[in-house]
Design brief:
By secondary structure, this protein is mainly beta. It has helices spanning 7-17, 20-25, 94-97, and strands spanning 41-42, 54-55, 63-65, 70-72, 78-83, 86-92, 103-109, 119-120, 124-130, 132-137, 140-145, 149-152, 158-161, 168-174, 182-183. The chain has three helices and 15 strands. Mean pLDDT is 76; it is low at 1-61.
Length: 184
Amino acid sequence: MTQLRSQPVVGWITRFIGTTASLQRRRLSSFDGNPWRLLCVFLIGPVEGHTERYIVRHDALERFEMASVRTVKLEMGKHLDLGGGSWARELLTGESVGARKTMLAYSVFKPGTGTAARTHGEEELCYILTGKGLILCEDGDVPVEEGMGVYIPPGVRHGTLNNGEKDLAMVYVFSYPKYPPTQM
């Protein structure tokens, strides 16, 4: 059986559905249908030749760790104040989950706010969740809006501006395990 890396999680599983030995013997069909037990699926096997996914509640945890899967709630991410009521949270990084090659964060820009121009040494990917704005580049501004993916190559000087009337929210990813080396 895959070993859990977090002792508090092992204790929580024991209190919630019994010992890990009894968990090994349980099959998915033996759960009582309680929706609190059916919130999140993680593989804890194979067990006795089966490959079923066992279901473990994790909604009460701020972070959840198993042998391979980790989660971080938005409010637990590293908070960055971007000024003017705008903010970002670094969620999945080398520090928070042991990422080796990437990091993921979430940011919200209030109308009329943005970032100063900067150049990263790594690729940046963004997905615009809500709002609209501009990616301000030396060779021209790039309009962005809800539902768009954005690729910014390393070495491209850029900033972000929310020129819309509602919050500009995005998820962004760097090919680096923390906020990458950056020149302002």
